[in-house]
Amino acid sequence: MRQLRHIDADAAHGRLTFARDTGFHGEVKRRVHAYFERTGLSERDSPRMYLKTAVLLLWFGASYALLVFGAATLWQGALLSLSLGLAMAGIGCAIQHDANHGAYSRRAAVNRVMGMTLDMLGASSYLWRFKHNLAHHTYTNLAGADDDINFVPFARLSPAQPRLRLHHLQQFYMWALYWFLFPKWNFVDDFKTLKQGRISGHQFPRPRGALLVQLIAGKLLFIAWAFGVPLLFHSWWVVLLFYATTSLVLGTALAVVFMLAHCVEEAEFPELPETARLPRSWAVHQVQTTVDFARGNRLLTWYVGGLNFQIEHHLFPHICHVHYPRIAEIVQGACVEFGVRYTAHASFIGALASHWRWLRRMGQPLATASAVVAATGV
Ligand SMILES: [Zn+2]
Question: Cis link prior to 153 (omega < 30° from 0)?
Fold first, then answer.
């Protein structure tokens, strides 16, 4: 994390900057910290988080063991790989995400160990911290700087990205692309990023020593449990089939959680100004490029690690997600007072429909940034 802070500081002094805070960020931080002082709650190390960790890891272990050692028919295998994919998505959203943000525990070692659950799933937690914590969380929805909205050339998620003819069908085929997210992450993206030494134009220090060992060990461990052990008991096509079905479930779940928070009609996609200075402060930028969804759905909130409270996550990524529902009341109140547009979809289906319409709109020839502003009135 020492190196990450170093990179954060570099980014803050990099070419892209935000306008100064005019009071909103300072006030919302003051109110949230006052909430923790008043209630005596800890921002991290929540017992609910430890319980959730146990439940998700047991769900993962049981699904895997039954799939590899217990499934007797293809249908049983299909259901268990569905269960395995959902458990892995739960770990991705609700354990490693907090841990790699430093939001799981006040002890760095606990965050590091729980963050390794991402390595266990075959993706480097070291690289994710740069890709997600720096590129996505700082430059949210800025095409060219936020790697998480970069599906070029297969899809167009921002008006600032080039449009190809095939994009007019992207609201249909995008779902198939989500299938390949996880295998691509496992076997292509991490290695490509390591080779390039850059993420969306931002340099990062290549891992050395223990960090490099962790990255390689994570990949080997994943290959061992996902392919090695199952191949001892099943034929290669059965192993590949269930890797594919698990990847479909996992990739779709992770992509949908991300897309509903950032790639919907209500989220802004500001253009990069020539001055390299954005007109809004960082905190206002975060609120306007992010949308909450299904905040009243407690089961969904539990499962997606509070990422349906994505506005709160972007403003307070170092606070454990179990607190987001209460923090949301404070954030929303401050937004009203400071005139910052705060958007939340009431339901999951409503957010999903908005994501669909956004994909369809971005596939149209006239979907430039100014046309979108005119259409949405934002
Ligand atoms: Zn995050």
Answer: yes
* Plot region of 276 (φ>0 → left; ψ -120 to 50 → alpha; else → beta): left
Question: How far does residue 69's CA lie from ligand 1's centre (Å)?
Answer: 35
Say how far residue 313 (Cα) sits from the centre of its chain.
10
- Cα separation, 7 vs 227, whole angstroms: 36
Q: Which two tokens stand for residue 119?
A: 């390595």
Block residue for tokens 């997606």? 304
Mean pLDDT of 4-28: 68
End-to-end CA distance of the chain: 37
Q: Whole-prediction pTM value?
A: 0.89
Q: What's at 278, amino acid-wise?
A: L
In one letter, which amino acid is 275? T
Compute, in angstroms, the gap from residue 261 CA to the centroid of ligand 1: 11
Reference 174, options 244, 258, 245, 91; nearest CA is 258
DSSP single-letter state for residue 324: H
pLDDT by residue (tens digit) across 111-128? Answer: 999 999 999 999 999 999
Cα 228 to ligand 1 centre (Å): 32
What's the token pair of residue 296? Answer: 């009243």
Cα–ligand 1 centroid distance for 78 (angstroms): 31
Q: Per DSSP, which regions of the chain are E strands?
A: 17-19, 198-199, 202-203, 277-281, 292-293, 344-345
Q: Give phi and psi for 277, each to the nearest 5.
A: -120, 120
CB-based contacts of 65-73 (< 8 A; 24+ apart in sequence): 67/242, 68/229, 68/230, 68/233, 68/234, 69/233
Q: Are 343 and 332 in contact (CB under 8 A)?
A: no
